[in-house]
Amino acid sequence: MPPSDSDRFLASRRSELLPIAPSSSPGEGAPDDWRWQVRRAARTTDALAAALCLTPSEVAGARRAEQAGLPISVTPYYLSLASRDDDACPIRRQCIPDIAESVVADGDLLDPLGEVPNEVAPHLVQRYPDRVLLIATDRCSVYCRFCTRSRIVGSGGGGTSLEALAPAFEYLRAHPEIRDVIVSGGDPLTMSTERIERLIAAIRAIPSIETIRIGTRVPVTLPMRITDELLAALRPHHPIWIMTHFNHPKEVTPESIAACTRLADAGFPVMNQSVLLAGINDDADVLETLFRKLIRMRVRPYYLLQADPVQGTSHLRTSIARGISIMGKLQGRLTGIALPKYICDTPGGKGKVPLQPNYIVSTDGAKTTMRTFRGELVDYIDPPKAD
Ligand code: SF4
């Protein structure tokens, strides 16, 4: 059988096929077009096995994922970043199912952030007084095996219509204390440009909304989605912040750099939320490399997230003690703009808690003794009459 387009894409050098700056209106028939990538995403065990030498554990996990739980989807682009033979590859472990997903560990939850009990209108979740999460679609270009929202993503509904979101908009109009809407999913930028533009315009029409954030992994998994057409459609609705999700330096490629550069040049601040993942990035050297690469492409490392206890992901999670130790090593190695906050989004939807090493050794009246990143003890004396 002659090789398919996807086979040819995988077998070819990406740099030859993926120009760094995609044209503004590419046809749908080439690997540098996002629709081509979505249509040819690997969604079955056989498709993954055609591209990678799967282990028995991966084959069993993929067969299980075809039947139940979080489905499979990996774009040819993201698959091309994965090692064909090394099952410890950090790309592969993020997107290829493993039979360990069938394990239910102590503390695992289907809805770790308590989004279901905090739904204030259909598709609208409120856990803080001033901000909400709007679930715009259940689709993603790649289904990440650690996904917090694995209970709903890929469930088949697709994009949520504006009609279905009418009660959510009504709620926002009735609650002017809400100033910030995070449009998430699924991945909103897997929707058509027209659809995402209409949604963003509808949110922007609510006078009390100051900030719109779009949570998207397409700069990482489908960077050719950041087209001139998309940027032109969204720009009139600024300020819009892009919240993306690089987890490993291997994800920083000419294509992802181009996507983030185009976003930054069009006035979209790009913030990154890495998830701390066992054997993938739970290492100070790996994260230092990633964060340095991100600031070079004008992406701000914003959060390092302790992985949520999503059911079936215990093999991908690491301990809070390890995360704090990593943050201790990075403090002093990295400039402040490259150093994210380390956050645990507490189970049950109780809110985010920042975590860090304890730098305060003792307090004695006005004197606070601290340990610096070099391990030196230094006293700070409060001013007279301070509280
Ligand atoms: S892109 Fe986001 S919503 Fe989609 S599977 Fe990955 S983590 Fe989950």
Kindly summarize this structure in a few lines.
By secondary structure, the chain is α/β, with parallel strands linked by helices.
**CATH homologous superfamily assignment of the largest domain:** Aldolase class I
Can you give the mean pLDDT? 93
Query: CATH topology of the largest domain, what is it called?
Result: TIM Barrel
Estimated radius of gyration: 22 Å
Q: What is the global morphology?
A: globular
Count the domains. Answer: 3
Q: Spell the H/E element sequence.
A: HHHHHHHEEEHEHEHHEHEHEHEEEEE
Unreliable segments (pLDDT under 50, ≥5 consecutive)?
Answer: 1-25
Gap between N and C termini: 78 Å
Major β-sheet profile: 10 strands, mixed
Keywords:
single chain; 387 residues; alpha/beta; TIM Barrel; 3 domains; 10-stranded mixed beta sheet; 3-stranded antiparallel beta sheet; globular; binds iron/sulfur cluster
Q: What report would you give on this structure?
A:
The chain has 387 residues and is of the alpha/beta class. It folds into 3 domains: 98 residues, no CATH class; 237 residues, Alpha-Beta Barrel (TIM Barrel), CATH 3.20.20.70; 30 residues, no CATH class. The protein is built from 14 helices and 13 strands. The protein has a 10-stranded mixed sheet with strand order 1-2-3-4-5-6-7-8-9-10. Strands 11-12-13 form a 3-stranded antiparallel sheet, with no helix packed on it. Strand 9 and strand 10 form a beta hairpin. The longest helix has 13 residues.
